[in-house]
Amino acid sequence: MDPHYDAQDVARCDLCEVAIVQSYCDFCHVNLCKPCIGEHISDDYSKHTIVPFQQRRSTPIYPKCEKHPRRACELQCKDCNIFLCTDCLASEQHNKEHKLAKLEEVFRQKKDHIHRDKKELKEKLLPVYEEIATEIKNQIANLNVDYKKFTTEMSKHREELHREIDNAMNQREKEIDKNKLKHLSILTKHLEEIKQLQSLMQESLHNLNEMEDSNEVTPTICYSSKNQEFSKLPPKVIVSMPKFIPKPIEKEELCRLIGKLTPLSTTLEERVFTAKKPNTSARELLDEPEVVNTIKTGHEQLCSVTCLNEEEIWTSGQTTADIKCFNTQGVLQKTIKTKSGSWPNDIAVYSDGALVYSDSVTRTVYKVKNDQTEEIIRLQGWRPTQLCVTSSGDLLVTMFSDDKTQSKVVLYSGSTVKQTIQFDDDGQPLYSGNNKFKYITENRNLDICVADIEAGAVVVVNQAGKLRFRYTGPSSSTKKKPFEPWGITTDSQSHILTADSDNHCIHIIDEYGQFLCSIDNCDIGDPTGLCVDNDDSLFVCEYYKGNVKRIRYLK
Q1: Separation between Cα atoms, residue 523 and residue 549, nearest integer Å
Q2: What is the rounded distance in angstroms from the CA atom of residue 552 to the CA atom of residue 285?
């Protein structure tokens, strides 16, 4: 047997190694052709168990008896917990009052037990652990956001402390300025007094000069000296400088002033396993999907459709700034124009009925409620494209860089970034880098699904942003053109539906990326945007026709 063709070659007889295998010895575990069976069982016919090859390994292999090696044990003593053969019973060496059980029955019971355990492990226990793992992964993914909020609060408190410290220091500086003015006033006053005495002394000196040169007797005789008065010097004014006595900084006191940081605590909360009830709302795919009705929107290049309930849908296209609301009978209910006058890249609806749309020209995402339009997101260096409102009320936005070399998915809570999804675990881009449509949706299991036209793939990541799989079309396809997914949506069964526009059909895959079927019998022309309402009715945009087809595809 050529090892290069093992997977394609047929099984051969282990004895002659030539003939095609037809039987199998469940005792010796060898493949046998018909001519070799006789040779194989010639040594001891009774011990061999020959079965058809398709039933191989179906016969129980009983243990050999320790006391009678040529015999297989068929019984088990429940009291001694040992295996027995029929010779053991005939020899009367074993207590006949002990309870015996047939190994075949014990074997089957254990097999049933194993089957039940396997089923419980696969269908009940493993999904619970998967949920626990996902929960922990989400906590890890949100650590940066949570701790950023923490440090932001600390930064605000730091600013408040700095502000109060500055205010206190400014108050001390004002006190210093007041002291300086008072000090200056005292010294200035003292200087004036000294100057007055100097002036009197100069006057006295002048008079003495005149009297010394004069020959008049009377003034000279009447002269009285003032030097005794001048020799009595004015008191020295000593003004002591104010002193700044800083309070010693004690680290513990400073920490108390800043605030207390509670220590990281870890507690164990008991988890109680509760088996999930079977999904009673499971719905099967119809063999032949059918068009319920067709809504003519008037859009020349219809791109997007979204719905909040079973009563209304919103639509938008590439050639107009109009966003139109229709009831499911096709009657126009309302029209909203984009704020910039440009066509919206995509539209979505919040649970409260508010409409949200993206405008890549202005790099902005707008929210419209009660006819009031507000800007909720404005980007720098990136341009928003497709949108999805999540089950938690957050907003997923696909976007591309200004140079059209990068694409990413960003999760927003209001205007705050909660998560960015751009690279896989190897640091490679998850999405093609260009400005082409990348429709996005959230599945019931919280997976994030992106239809990447350029890559020809549906890229699915879990809630933590880790790549789960890429769907690139069914393994065998009769479609004439390559798979290029446009619109994407999910239903109550966690099916992923994506529009194969060039091949005029809708692919339906399961949550694991396995192709289930395609909707290609409803005369769909160039499908683009998709959405599913609460009743699992599928709405499909026909790009050039400008129609929205409502399709029933589940039983």
Answers
A1: 10
A2: 9
Whether residue 250 lies inside any domain: the answer is: no
Token pair listed for 268:
């164990």
Q: Contact, 384 vs 366, CB < 8 A?
A: no
Q: 79 and 180, same structural domain?
A: no
Q: How far apart are CA 348 and CA 362, in angstroms?
A: 18
Same domain, 312 and 421: yes
pLDDT averaged over every residue in the chain:
87
Residues 170 and 85 in one domain: no
* Banded pLDDT at 283 (limits 50, 70, 90): confident
Structural domain ending residue among the three candidates 214, 242, 270: 242
Q: Fill in the amino acid letter for 343.
A: W
Looking at the fold, whether 80 and 214 belong to one and the same domain comes out as no
Per-residue burial over 236-253, b = 16 or more CB atoms within 10 Å of its CB, e = otherwise = eeeeeeeeeeeeeeeeee
Annotate 348-369 with DSSP letters as a single string: EE-TTS-EEEEETTTTEEEEEE
pLDDT of residue 6 exceeding 50, the answer is no
In the predicted model, is pLDDT for residue 276 greater than 70? no
The DSSP line for 189-258 is: HHHHHHHHHHHHHHHHHHHHHHHHH---HHHHHH----HHHHHSPPPPP--PPP---PPP--HHHHHHHH
Same domain, 56 and 199: no
Six-digit token string for 504 = 């005029």
- Report the CATH number that the domain containing residue 549 is assigned in CATH: 2.120.10.30
State the residue range of the domain holding 200.
Answer: 144-242
Residue with tokens 């191989």: 56
Question: Do residues 436 and 302 both lie within one domain?
Answer: yes
Q: Report the percentage of the chain scoring pLDDT > 90.
A: 44
Total domain count for the chain?
3
Average pLDDT over residues 17-37: 87
Measure the CA–CA gap between 508 and 216, rounded to whole angstroms.
137
Token pair 């104010």 is at which residue? 242
| Residue 38 DSSP one-character state | H
